[in-house]
Amino acid sequence: VTLLVCAAAIAALALIELPLPLYMALGLIAGLSTPPVQSAVRTIYPKMVPSKQLTPLYSLDASLQEIIWVLAPVLITLVATQIGTVPGLLLVVVILIGGGAWFILSPEVGRVRIPRSRRGLGKVLTKPPVILATATGFLLIGACAAVEAGVVATFDHGGLEAGLVLAVFAVGSLAGGLSFGHIPIGPWAMARRFAIVALGLSLTIVSLNAWWLGATLLVAGAGIAPALAVMFAMTSASVRFSETAEAYGWIGTGQLIGAAAGSAVAGFLVDGVGPTGAYVAAAGFAIAGFIVSAVFVRGFPDLRHRDASPIPDTEPVPTVT
């Protein structure tokens, strides 16, 4: 149902001439009805693979997600500028329906039954790992969004360099995710990964040369997917199986808000001081993420001697005496 509503809202945005308030209403409907595929798929991971493979799987998932965050806006911008905004929005509808149908028809989705949570909405945010994963996700994706705005401002929308530099950023993330996926996750894991991201993004401020930006973003990217993997694994290990979908939903919301905030701050600084301002914003988001991870390190679980499986749902069992 959410898939069809979201697709219809985006299609209406593309095909129907409306006043601005109605466009805003359709955008709100599309956002509210976006299918929770990410939350759902991460919820069923523990039922799909052995517990020892969960952390590497979360790392692979994070690598692919970061590539999507970087490359999808570039693709839609290219289509919108070279062909038109209507084909661009219709492409979004096609991808949405195709991907949603693929997920819905997957056999694994039909086999897994997620029990209903017995706690009220939002109670999962009382768990420190969930709120920390949401906060650090906000800051990490905010940094990525600021980088993207900076690269586009540096090389213009139609420049080949922008796509290549962002591709290097994504390659760095993929390499980091695949390389660090097997490393056990301790309380300081998030801080170490944010340190890599902050270092790389801070170096981007030195020069706007394409080769320099590519090299520094390759370094920064190496910490992004591993940081996302820590968020997913620590969340899974800290909540009951029935609460995982909601927990991942909050994390996804934090990341979406981070993307909007990062783009907004970077855009404001680009207009004020030029493209370098966007990289300053990106570095600021990453440094803030490192500070949060270091200051609240006690809130991060130690998964070095356990897997990332969620806490089993239990309930009293009546006995006959």
Notes on the protein architecture:
The chain is mostly helical and 321 residues long. The chain has a domain at 57-83 and 121-299: Up-down Bundle (Growth Hormone, Chain: A), CATH 1.20.1250. Helix content is 74%, strand content 0%. The chain contains 12 helices and no strands. Helix 7 runs parallel beside helix 11 (244-273), helix 7 (128-155) runs antiparallel to helix 12 (275-295) and helix 9 packs antiparallel against helix 12. The longest helix has 30 residues, at 244-273. The protein is globular and about 55 Å long. 42% of the residues are buried.
What kind of assembly state do the chains in view correspond to?
single chain
* CATH top level class name of the domain at 57-83 and 121-299: Mainly Alpha
Q: Describe the biggest sheet?
A: none
Indicate the mean pLDDT. 83
> Globular, elongated, flat, extended or rod-shaped: what is the shape?
globular
Query: In the CATH hierarchy, what is the superfamily of the domain at 57-83 and 121-299?
Result: MFS general substrate transporter like domains
Question: Strand content of the residues, in percent?
Answer: under 5%
Roughly how many Å is the radius of gyration?
20 Å
- Which residues sit in consecutive blocks of at least 5 with pLDDT less than 50? none
Structural class: mainly alpha
Helix residue percentage? over 70%
Number of helical runs? Answer: 12
Distance N terminus to C terminus?
Answer: 48 Å
Q: Give the CATH architecture of the domain at 57-83 and 121-299.
A: Up-down Bundle
Order of helices and strands: HHHHHHHHHHHH
Number of strands: 0
- For this structure, the CATH topology of the domain at 57-83 and 121-299 is Growth Hormone, Chain: A
